[in-house]
Amino acid sequence: MVPDLVTEVSTRAHFDIRCNQEWRRGTRDGSSLSLLMIEIDAFKPARSSSSKSDVHDFLNRVSAVLRSTLSRPGDFVARYGDARFAMLLPITDSVGALIVAEDLRKAVEALKLAPSCLEKRLVTVSLGVASIVPSQDLALPALIAASEKALASAKCEGGNHVERTIL
Known about the structure:
Blueprint: H1 12-29, E1 33-40, H2 43-49, H3 52-68, E2 76-79, E3 84-90, H4 94-110, E4 125-132, H5 140-156, E5 162-166
Parallel strand pairs: 4-5
Antiparallel strand pairs: 1-3, 1-4, 2-3
């Protein structure tokens, strides 16, 4: 695995490979699979008015929190986009995934990162959680779409929020 150069987590390409592997395993085993979409709130204003090194610093500090929560060998986090991360939690139902998501939200908030461009507002994250038991009748894109939809709902709540979708 070649990590993302800024955040030191896996890349989107590696995420796609792992997602497909875990989907196939869940289909075989009948085990739950949860996906957390995580986005840094107010990232665009921070990026446009901060130095590149400051932006990289808070991206790296947020990703360090995400990495530190991976307690099981199969759990996986990747940089999914500019300020978006995806966390894959195999053999985890929606209740377990919601607990992980809320712990992540609190841990990022506890960093108390406050870039000057955000006018003393803390860096926070919004999380969309989706869980499913993979099967031949369902496709992986349904899980990804559900987690993205939940993330959009969390952001509509004003950020620093966790929203869950159950498939």
